[in-house]
Amino acid sequence: MRVAFIGLGNMGQPLVRNLLKAGHEVLVYNRTRSRAEELAREGARIASTPAEACASGVVLTMLADDRALEETVFGARGILGALPAGGAHISLSTISTAFAQRLAEAHREKKQHYVSAPVFGRPEAAAAARLVVVAAGPAEAIERCRPLLEAFSRKVFIIGPEAPAANIVKLAGNFLIAAMLESLGEAFALVRKSGVDPAQFLEILNGSLFQSPIYENYGKIIVERRYEPAGFKLLLGLKDIRLALAAADAAAAPMPLASLLRDHLLARAAQGHGEMDWASLAEVAAQNAGLPA
Amino acid sequence: MRVAFIGLGNMGQPLVRNLLKAGHEVLVYNRTRSRAEELAREGARIASTPAEACASGVVLTMLADDRALEETVFGARGILGALPAGGAHISLSTISTAFAQRLAEAHREKKQHYVSAPVFGRPEAAAAARLVVVAAGPAEAIERCRPLLEAFSRKVFIIGPEAPAANIVKLAGNFLIAAMLESLGEAFALVRKSGVDPAQFLEILNGSLFQSPIYENYGKIIVERRYEPAGFKLLLGLKDIRLALAAADAAAAPMPLASLLRDHLLARAAQGHGEMDWASLAEVAAQNAGLPA
Amino acid sequence: MRVAFIGLGNMGQPLVRNLLKAGHEVLVYNRTRSRAEELAREGARIASTPAEACASGVVLTMLADDRALEETVFGARGILGALPAGGAHISLSTISTAFAQRLAEAHREKKQHYVSAPVFGRPEAAAAARLVVVAAGPAEAIERCRPLLEAFSRKVFIIGPEAPAANIVKLAGNFLIAAMLESLGEAFALVRKSGVDPAQFLEILNGSLFQSPIYENYGKIIVERRYEPAGFKLLLGLKDIRLALAAADAAAAPMPLASLLRDHLLARAAQGHGEMDWASLAEVAAQNAGLPA
Amino acid sequence: MRVAFIGLGNMGQPLVRNLLKAGHEVLVYNRTRSRAEELAREGARIASTPAEACASGVVLTMLADDRALEETVFGARGILGALPAGGAHISLSTISTAFAQRLAEAHREKKQHYVSAPVFGRPEAAAAARLVVVAAGPAEAIERCRPLLEAFSRKVFIIGPEAPAANIVKLAGNFLIAAMLESLGEAFALVRKSGVDPAQFLEILNGSLFQSPIYENYGKIIVERRYEPAGFKLLLGLKDIRLALAAADAAAAPMPLASLLRDHLLARAAQGHGEMDWASLAEVAAQNAGLPA
């Protein structure tokens, strides 16, 4: 299948590799061209504008935030003006539900299809084609693009026809992960200051209480306090919690735990740790307990 | 092995059944005698005071809180005065770390052994001999009693010689579960008010994000809003979070998420819902979002 | 002095009356014309568009939020296109610091002056010409307009040349008031449930501890639970705390108490109480304590 | 009038001086005798045990916490055994409501009177005889001791016959002050990081918004970041917020803002700043905003 892919960051690059591996023809675009060139050596072709990338009729985007995607879609030589009628834009980015709504409407007006298909998983999972995709939008567009999504995921969940619903699920999911990080941070600070070995405590959590790969994975990072290099940067996590709070505000659903997470992530950012892995949220509790950094 | 068991509530009863099933001779005591009589029909013998139960030299206690255990140990005809030197008291209850410390000292003075061995798991798990035990105290006492603990558990973790360390682990563990309940409550309120099917959201959590039996189990209760009959009463959960906060205060480790949990559990109790399952903590977020009760 | 006034709500109307009383010629505009007509009977003249109102060269605006002011300034027949070079726009509204920045830049480009001059005080204070004004912007524009500001205030504070600084002060001030409301709400819930007379407690606060008119004023409303008619609607208070949090986010200054206020105000709004006075924030603590509504 | 005074710390010493100045005969006791000797040079007489001090029939106590008062009342040679029937114990300390209840009962059993009379005000106010006293207990005992209380206060409020009610008022009052400190801390962090002069902001608060001596006083300390020497130590403030939370728990009145205060005070203590003035609670917000210490 011919497909365009825009946004070649930590996540975008391994996704393109998996698309190529699955036999798709991929036309890539990235603002910083060098990242596209790496992929060209592995079989991708390079487009020089988002518009040029749209010729294939199906475009996947994986960008950092609303603003980057806005420029790519609505900007000069953007997707909106170039995608043919009947074409589909699949947005893999974690964006606001309000912006997802605006994208759905703008594409519909141009007789194009818009699908929100945010993904769960870190770069390692992207490389291993083990992401989880949550898709919402017009059913036929999802079906058409399913082979693309399956090229890099272990599971595709389809939520329904309203695109923003997939973004809500993604934001609620990331909120749950951040809540887990905060709870682990506080629990480990308590355990440490009470003279209990945190590694032993983690073993109990993994072996019996939660038995969950994500607790195991993040628990290990926190016990070892190994936050660099970042799998998922704290600043991106802060962005996602902001988006969850914006969605909660729009829905009139107060989320005090999300507020606490935002405040702790913001403190880490204000103190200059925004580039660390977001698991370092756990360091807020350690710092407040007077534990050495 | 001959063993005494004191405290025949929702947890104590199935534990005794498992001890009997494993071939141990069990002498039971309960303040309300009728609960002991049920077990007598299944092979247990009945003691009429805690002191009388202690003759066997090994006594397991499973009581509601510090106060109940204090009366049983330090009261007239209590354990402390009756347990022979060299005897062992294994406390399965969720008690404060300060009280565990006091028990350890009091028993040591009498040349008795004290082991804190709190358990994770609800009554169903107790019945199925699937609890997880976290034990701390004198190594030889733990080894001696291990067959008893194994009679009702799928896993026994040994923390070390200081009894209160096991209580810290238990309290930190229950804090993590309550944090999960709060996070699920907020996430489901957001999802519901945004028009996404909560059951579908739960399926995604279970099938990919957390893949954890405890998320699955509690997630189901919350999605169905089925909080009665209670597996674990909210008032007991409130007690445990209070104990976690007391331990955190003693260790000078601030736990703002634990504070939030205490406040929400206390609000539920103040509004008359203390007898429901503690998963109903999730209803705080639903109520604050204006969702119908 | 000749001046235009746009926005004739609960605050705008008494302000115009005070301007008239001080002898100024006032040209008024309001989207709903009837409110302008009331003032016409008292000496004001009516403009039929914002643009028409701008002829005088000085325009005061008092509107509900960023969106209303954006339409009035940037919309068709808006202020920006109509105000003569050298003219001044004095914005009395509580708006975001980001939007104040945008206004300052847009007016500067047109060689117009922009002054942020938000006010503290409720409608009664506006009527009594007892508001407190916090002004920031070009010094000569502030000096020129000072007689206008003094017509309805007891005090004008001048912050400096950067307009958004006045908005920061206003938002931080409203945050402090809301924090006072929350603290009173929690204190009164404690006092009530402990069997102490809240009126007596309030007397102690006023007579000795705080001796502050604003504690006295709001304390009385809360003790009497008399939240209607609203002097300042909860929904407007919620808007202001949102703006304070947005400013805090932009400045990377976490404000957990502001987060708590936002969540409690949002819960009141979600439960259908957004039209009450924002002092009803105190009812969140009462409700959580199980006190009758 | 003849009176005993026990507890000669920062508050006790100036209180005794004011009693002497008003012409009362004062018998003092302090665990560390040197502090009593200072007062002996000013006319007080020294007792060598609490019991000995009780001969006068009226004893005032001003001690650090429940534990210190417990020892003084219930310990060997304590007040309870020595105070004559009909005698009165006036406790000025900030203690728990539960302990006030226990004191009331213990004294009643001995036919003695117990009055809770906690005070608002810092050492300077104590020296200037400007404290505010909140008294509760048997009416005739309060009337009898009123001249003593008036010797060091500008106002005596009488709450009613139930002693713990005065302690509730004191704890709720201190909670309100701490809430003010937190709100000022967050507001000043926002203002500072937004480039607004905090002294100017404080001037606005004092001159118009709050017009309250306590805001002025503490606002100045926070703007100048001058937390030493402590007028009231952070560790004592932490103790008081713990007591407020304990009272709130007993009354089933959740106080999330009090929880936040406790967590922030505890973090300051864990980081080694417990001896500073409790106004340094404001530094938590500054630190989280990344402002230099």
Present the secondary structure layout.
The structure is a homotetramer of 293-residue chains.
Chain A: E1 2-6, H1 12-21, E2 25-29, H2 33-40, E3 45-46, H3 50-53, E4 58-61, H4 66-74, H5 79-82, E5 88-91, H6 97-109, E6 113-116, E7 119-120, H7 123-127, E8 131-136, H8 139-150, E9 153-160, H9 163-193, H10 198-209, H11 213-224, H12 234-250, H13 256-270, H14 282-288
Parallel strand pairs in A: 1-2, 1-4, 2-3, 4-5, 5-6, 8-9
Antiparallel strand pairs in A: 7-8
Helix pairs in contact in A: 6-9, 9-11, 9-12, 9-14, 10-11, 12-13
Indicate the percent of residues in helices of chain A.
40-55%
Structural class of chain A: alpha/beta
- Give me the strand/helix succession of chain A: EHEHEHEHHEHEEHEHEHHHHHH
**Biggest interchain interface, per-side counts:** A-B, 64 and 64 residues
- The portion of residues forming beta strands of chain A comes to 5-15%
Tally of helical segments of chain A: 14
Total strand count of chain A, please? Answer: 9
| Multimerization state | homotetramer
Give the end-to-end Cα distance of chain A, rounded to a whole number of Å.
Answer: 51 Å
The strand order across the widest sheet of chain A is 3-2-1-4-5-6
Shape of chain A: globular
Low-confidence stretches of chain A: none
- Rg over C-alpha atoms of chain A, rounded to the nearest angstrom: 20 Å
The overall pLDDT of chain A, averaged over residues, is 96
Biggest pleated-sheet summary of chain A: 6 strands, parallel
